[in-house]
Automatic annotation (TrEMBL):
This is GntR family transcriptional regulator. PROSITE patterns: HTH_GNTR (PS50949). It comes from the Bacteria. It holds the Pfam family FCD. Coiled coil: none annotated. It comes from Streptomyces sindenensis. Keywords: DNA-binding, Transcription, Transcription regulation. The lineage of its organism: Bacteria, Bacillati, Actinomycetota, Actinomycetes, Kitasatosporales.
Length: 262
């Protein structure tokens, strides 16, 4: 079942423990030379090559890396519920200015992971078991009927191509990597729901799924055994979908969601 404790692409590097102190740990690479380079067009030089990427694109890329790192830190419990973190302090840790950190935190605030504390920074949202149970209930209301419908109509060969995604959850669980598991878990569910052809459904379900992965207040860390049990449900669900066994599909999906409040 989903861990009740965020992220596309490769997991960004940041050192676990003592977050966000210990400056000089993981740093987001910066191309200082390219930042100071004057575009050829600005010097009046003629060129037929593509112009350098705008500075705003480079900043967005840094913000994306910081956002991925912060989401991973949320899932891992490195960002503690109830604590306030300042953008300058986090920026010093990652070796960037406060601006991309602040932009990433504002995105997390929109998602509900943190809340803005004027003149101080951002407080990690405190969540209890009731909220997690409510999220699991809403997810079940959305995903169970969709998966049952897909089980009746999608041919076996289309389910089979999702096998590597299910196996990726097992691999992450085997090493106890909660952030990697959270990412692969969402990737599997997105791929299943995408077969419905409803992009809005996929977006809404993925947002609910991400929120279900944030840590509880004073909640225990998800153990590797729990992650392995959750991952096994993915492979079992895929087998049931291939076999078009609607009874097993429904039972597995509901059990999967009900485990969110473990």
């Amino acid at each position: 079942m989903e861990q009740g404790s965020a992220r596309e692409g490769a997991r960004p590097a940041y050192a676990p423990g003592a977050f966000p102190s210990a400056p000089g740990d993981a740093r987001v690479p910066q191309d200082r030379a390219s930042r100071n380079r004057v575009p050829e067009q600005a010097r009046g030089e003629h060129t037929h090559s593509e112009p350098p990427a705008p500075r705003a694109v480079r900043r967005h890329s840094v913000r994306g890396q910081i956002l991925d790192a912060l989401r991973a830190a949320l899932v891992d419990g490195e960002l503690v519920p109830g604590q306030v973190y300042s953008a300058p302090a986090l920026g010093a840790r990652f070796g960037v200015s406060a601006t991309p950190v602040r932009e990433a935190m504002q995105r997390l605030a929109v998602e509900g992971a943190v809340e803005v504390v004027p003149n101080r920074g951002f407080r990690v949202t405190e969540r209890g078991p009731r909220e997690l149970a409510e999220l699991a209930e809403v997810r079940a209301l959305i995903e169970v009927p969709v998966m049952l419908s897909l089980a009746r109509t999608v041919p076996a060969h289309r389910w089979s191509v999702l096998r590597p995604l299910a196996e990726a959850t097992v691999a992450a669980a085997a090493v106890g990597d909660r952030a990697a598991y959270a990412e692969s878990d969402r990737a599997f569910h997105r791929a299943v729901l995408a077969l419905s052809g409803n992009e809005q459904l996929v977006t809404v379900a993925d947002e609910l799924h991400r929120r279900s992965q944030w840590p509880l207040v004073a909640g225990p860390a998800t153990r590797r055994g729990e992650l392995l049990a959750d991952a096994a449900e993915h492979t079992a669900l895929l087998d049931a979908l291939i076999a078009q066994d609607l009874t097993v599909v429904q039972a597995l999906v509901r059990e999967h969601f009900n485990g969110a409040d473990r």
